[in-house]
Design brief:
two-stranded parallel ribbon, globular, 18% strand, 2 domains, 6-stranded parallel sheet, single chain, alpha/beta, 217 residues, 9 helices, Rossmann fold
């Protein structure tokens, strides 16, 4: 199966181009330990993680009858920001961005990360120059990317049929379907391959290195 005649690639950031899963597990586990709750293994994290993230927090054991969601959410963001420098790009990130750039694709970022933090993260990893535009969220609560995705579509002024979204979660699939664009899911991020496959989605790869076979420059 291939994705033909696309002009724009929309990249998710966390878990797709940036390998930040382990620091996310470490940060949420610190919050859980502080509340005397059961910590998560990597596998358990990838089974629970979802959007909006408030539902993932609930599944992990947080009780929002005892505290407002915003409290652990901001604790997490502060911890995450402290450890973000430890998160590296996936091994194939630079080469795959270079490949698509050299083959004439326009590339954008659509992320559930707060906008300023997102741009800072892209700059610190020295890949901001690959992207025409960057679309993040207005706050740190990761409620979802559909609204930001619609802003992206409106800003580009192009047909959704000219675009493809590449992400690592079922929310990326939901966003793409809502916006009317194709999606490829990469199964080495924040959700397990089994979860992605359970959605009956056909375009799933194990790593970024497999992506070129789906595209016809």
């Amino acid at each position: 199966m291939s994705i033909l005649n696309k002009k724009v690639i929309i990249w998710d950031w966390n878990g797709t181009l940036l390998d930040d899963v382990n620091i996310c597990v470490a940060c949420i586990n610190e919050l859980l330990k502080n509340r005397e709750l059961t910590v998560l293994s990597l596998d358990r994290y990838r089974e629970l993680f979802t959007f909006p993230v408030i539902e993932y927090y609930r599944a992990a054991g947080f009780d929002f009858s005892k505290e407002e969601f915003e409290k652990p959410a901001m604790e997490f963001i502060n911890l995450y920001h402290t450890h973000l420098h430890k998160a590296a790009l996936f091994e194939q990130t630079r080469s795959i961005l270079t490949h698509f750039s050299q083959n004439g694709y326009r590339q954008l970022v659509l992320s559930a990360m707060e906008q300023k933090m997102l741009i800072s993260s892209l700059k610190s990893n020295d890949i901001l120059h690959f992207f025409d535009h960057v679309f993040g969220l207005d706050d740190h609560y990761a409620s979802g990317k559909i609204e930001a995705g619609q802003r992206l579509i409106d800003h580009m002024g192009m047909s959704p049929g000219d675009m493809v979204l590449i992400g690592d979660t079922l929310h990326d699939k939901e966003v793409a379907e809502t916006l009317g664009i194709n999606v490829v899911l990469v199964a080495n991020g924040h959700q397990s391959k089994a979860r992605l496959q359970a959605s009956d989605h056909q375009l799933i790869v194990d790593s970024l290195a497999e992506l070129p076979k789906f595209f016809n420059p």
